[in-house]
Amino acid sequence: MNLEQEFVILLEKNQNIVHKICKIYTDQEDVHKDLFQEITIQLWHSYPKFRGEAKFSTWAYRIGLNTAISLFRNKKRKLSIIPWDQALEKISYEEYDPQKDDQLHYLYEAIQHLNDIEKALIYLYLEDKDYTEIAETLGISEVNARVKMNRTKTKLKEILKKKGAL
Amino acid sequence: MDELDQFKKQWQEDKNFIKVDQSDIKTMLHKSSTSIVKWIFMISLIELSLGIILSLLLPNSNRDELPFFHFVDYASELVFYCAIAYFIYKFFKSYTSISSTNSTKNLLNSILETRKHVENYIKFNIYFIMYSFFVAFLELTIRKIDLDHKWGSNLLMIIAFAVCITLVAYVFIAIFKFYYKIVYRRLLRKLNNNYEELNRLEQE
C-alpha cells in the first residue's frame, strides 16, 4: 500500500475528529468544508514525519486544532453567507441532520460563544484528554491548563444554563 | 460528577456528520493549501524584493567633488546589503521553523516572528531611505552654500530643504502604516488575539 492510500484510509476512519473541530470553529457549512479540506492538507503534509510515531488521533488533534486556531483563513464574511440549504445538500450528503439531538445541538451552539483557545480546551476535554496532553498541545503549563479549563467549563455551563440546556 | 459529563458521552458518540469518502479525501490532497502562512510567505517575498528595488532608486550624489561623501556612500551601501542579507536569512530561518506539529503557542510564535522579520526589514528600508535623503541633503547644502551670500538666505535654503526632507519622510511612513493596516489587519488579527490569549494565561 502506498503512502497516500494508507493516509486516505486512516483519515476516512478517523474523520469525525476533524469534523468535530470544524463544527466547533464554524457554524457555516461551506466554511466547515473549507476547514476540513485545509486540515486534510496539513495532515497530509506532515504525514511522512508522523508515520507511526503516535496514535493517528493524538496527532490529528494537534494539527487539526493548530490549523483552526492559526493557519486557517476564513475567506467568507459571515453576513454575506446565504443560509445553507439542507434540501439541496441532501443530494450529495445523506442523513445529515444537525438538530437530531437537541442536547448536542445546544452544546455546539454554546461552544460557538467561546474564543478560539477556549474552544480548543473544551474540545480536548470532551475528547477525554488528560491535562498533560492538553498542556502539550497548546504549549502552556499544566497548572495553567487546569485553571483555564475550569474557567472555560464554568463559562460554558453558564451559557448552557441560559439556553435552558442545564 | 461534572454537569458537563452528560454532554461528553453524547459528544463522543456523535457521528452525525457529512460523510467524506476516500475519493473526496484524495481530491482534497491534490488541492493547494490556502493557509495564512502561505499568504504571509508570498506577501513577504514581494516585500523583500521591493526593498531591493527601492534601494536602486536611492538618491545618488555627485561623487566627483566631495571625497568624504564618496566614502559615506560606499560604507552605507555595504551596511545596506549586509542588513538585507541578515533579514532575508532570519526570515527563511524563521519560516522553515513553522510546523503544524508544534504546540499551538510555538506555532503562533514562529508565524508571528517570521512576519516580524519582514516588518523590521521594511522599517529598516524606510529608515535607510530617510538616511539617504538626509546625506544627499547634507551634501547638497554644503555644495550650494554660497559664502558670499548673506547667512539669512543660506539659512532659508537649509530650512526649505529640511522641510522637504521631513515631508518626504512623513509621506513614506504614512504609506507604510496605511499599507500594513490594509494588508495585515485582517490577516494577523486572529493570530495576534490567540497568541495574546495564550500569553495572558501564562502570566496570570
Structural features, described:
The complex is a heterodimer of chains A (166) and B (204). The model of chain A is unreliable at 79-100 (pLDDT under 50). Chain A has helices spanning 3-13, 15-25, 29-50, 56-71, 86-89, 102-111, 116-126, 131-138, 142-162. Chain A is globular, with a radius of gyration of 17 Å. By secondary structure, chain A is mostly helical. Chain B has 204 residues and is mainly alpha-helical. Chain B has helices at residues 5-13, 22-29, 36-56, 67-96, 104-144, 151-203. In chain B, α5 runs antiparallel to α6 (151-203). Chain B starts with a helix and ends with a helix. The mean pLDDT of chain B is 85.
Mean pLDDT figure of chain A: 85
| Order of secondary-structure elements of chain A | HHHHHHHHH
Distance between the ends of chain A: 49 Å
In total, the number of domains of chain A comes to 2
Give the uncertain stretches of chain A in residue-range form: 79-100
Principal-axes shape call of chain B: elongated
Largest Cβ-defined interface = A-B, 70 and 51 residues
Major β-sheet annotation of chain A: none
Query: In which range does the helix fraction of chain A lie?
Result: 55-70%
Helix content percent band of chain B: over 70%
The helix-and-strand class of chain B reads mainly alpha
* CATH architecture grouping of the largest domain in chain A: Orthogonal Bundle
Strand content of chain A: under 5%
Number of strands of chain A: 0
Name of the CATH superfamily of the largest domain in chain A: RNA polymerase sigma factor, region 2, helix turn helix motif
